[in-house]
Design brief:
three-stranded parallel sheet; nine-stranded parallel sheet; 179 residues; mainly beta
Length: 179
């Protein structure tokens, strides 16, 4: 496990670092790698099980090999990053990920359990594809949406959002969280 907060100290960031490669055997990443302005690529190990509160505010981050960690769960990570598209073949749980990625135009999620807040505030999102193996935890239905804006913003100014839902078992209740 990698935890960047230990004994109250925080690991110093490397502002010019462009790529992070994790060693095989790493199973969790917690509270790390925030506000790295030049970070472009993250290479995850196949042994990864979870990432929490990491890789936020990395405006140039556009490359992550999600497919190599197919069962990993993601919570509160990859917000305010530079992704223009996402193609997630398989993930465990995804909670509050990719928030306010304002260059994100398309996201494809083939398999995951969405627990709320996916791409919340990502104003540029135009196309979202949810594969047959995407499910929702009940909290997603009561969540405040997928592309929810602060009350001061006008939803009419957003580009149209097309959502393709390939899992016919998803109910209207769960789809109501798309706002």
């Amino acid at each position: 496990s990698i935890n960047c907060n230990y004994s109250g100290a925080r690991v110093v960031s490397f502002e010019k670092l462009k790529k992070i490669l994790f060693d095989e055997g790493t199973t969790s990443i917690y509270n790390c790698y925030r506000s790295w302005p030049e970070l472009e690529t993250v290479v995850l190990p196949t042994t990864l099980k979870s990432i929490s509160s990491s890789f936020n505010d990395c405006p140039k981050l556009v490359n992550v090999n999600f497919e190599d960690a197919p069962d990993a769960s993601y919570s509160g990570c990859f917000g305010h990053c530079g992704f223009t598209s996402l193609d997630i073949k398989s993930a465990g749980h995804m909670t509050n990920c990719f928030e306010e990625c304002n260059q994100l135009e398309e996201a494809v999620v083939e398999k995951a359990t969405i627990a709320g807040g996916f791409a919340r505030g990502s104003r540029s999102l135009r196309h979202l594809v949810l594969g047959e193996k995407v499910t929702f935890r009940e909290t997603a239905a009561s969540d405040d949406g997928w592309r929810t804006l602060p009350e001061t913003e006008n939803a009419a100014e957003l580009p149209d959002l097309t959502i393709e839902v390939k899992n016919t078992g998803l109910t209207d209740l769960y789809c109501s969280c798309f706002n």
